[in-house]
Design goal:
Layout lengths: L1 H26 L2 H14 L11 H6 L7 H8 L18 H7 L21 E6 L17 E5 L4 E4 L10 E2 L9 E6 L7 E5 L13 E4 L7 E2 L10 E3 L2 E3 L10
Antiparallel strand pairs: 1-2, 2-3, 3-4, 5-6, 6-7, 7-8, 9-10
């Protein structure tokens, strides 16, 4: 009788322990289970030992001296599978794209992306050297700033210290001009030069030479510079145009 009671008690305790364990597992959220599983994968990584070897030890084993790829394997592994899966594409919810429709239609209206609310890539920015002393109309020295975008022309802000002061395109220059560099004549603060065209974009942002102002940026005119070489030529159906397409510095 006593044995029966003992065995029954053991069985009940076992069932209770199993029930508690199952309940604890069920209480874990899916993300917690995934984290737990991922932790086990990392602890048993195939590179657990090799990633800590010295460069000399790795070289002796004919392994790359740097453990970069060992760590990359662990850091990019799929937490569900335990190894990287770069070949598995991420699915896109096409319904969201279909709901938006074509750009500019009733479901996807255009939103302003500049020039006021977005500053694009800018390679030229300088204070107006004449915005000082008796030449300054607002009583504050050096708060008038010019800036040139790589594909947005030359702009001016008359009060860079004010959050509400707007940028305005400088007239006399093309609005889409690639402004890449500038220079101010050290002997004449009213004479400035800007160079157009950015060579480092594989020809995607070409310019058309150098522009000059002699009245502090009010009016501009192209500088007549003769390109080196034979000039424009034709080789069969291919035309080679001569010109100043990339001005990196002045």
């Amino acid at each position: 009788m006593k044995k029966t009671i003992i065995f029954s008690s053991i069985a009940i305790i076992t069932v209770l322990v199993a029930y508690v364990f199952v309940n604890q597992e069920e209480e874990l959220t899916e993300i917690e289970k995934l984290r737990k599983q991922h932790k086990e994968f990392v602890l048993h990584s195939p590179y657990k030992d090799t990633k800590n070897l010295s460069r000399a030890e790795r070289k002796a084993l004919s392994m790359p001296p740097n453990a970069y790829y060992d760590r990359e394997y662990e850091l990019t592994m799929n937490p569900q599978l335990g190894y990287p899966t770069p070949y598995i594409p991420q699915y896109i919810d096409v319904s969201l794209l279909q709901a938006k429709g074509l750009p500019g239609n009733g479901n996807a209206t255009w939103t302003e992306r500049g020039p006021i609310n977005v500053g694009g890539r800018t390679r030229v920015a300088f204070y107006d050297p004449n915005d000082v002393g008796s030449n300054n109309g607002d009583g504050v020295d050096y708060n008038r700033v010019f800036a040139g975008g790589v594909s947005g022309g030359l702009w001016v802000n008359n009060n860079i210290n004010s959050a509400t002061s707007s940028w305005n395109i400088v007239p006399g220059l093309a609005g889409g001009l690639n402004v890449n560099c500038y220079a101010i004549d050290p002997n004449d603060s009213n004479t400035w030069y800007i160079g157009t065209g950015e060579q480092y974009t594989s020809g995607a942002a070409i310019g058309n030479g150098v522009y000059k102002t002699t009245d502090g940026g009010v009016t501009w005119s192209p500088v007549n510079i003769t390109p080196a070489g034979p000039g424009t030529s034709t080789n069969g159906t291919t035309i080679f145009n001569a010109g100043l397409f990339f001005v990196n510095d002045i």
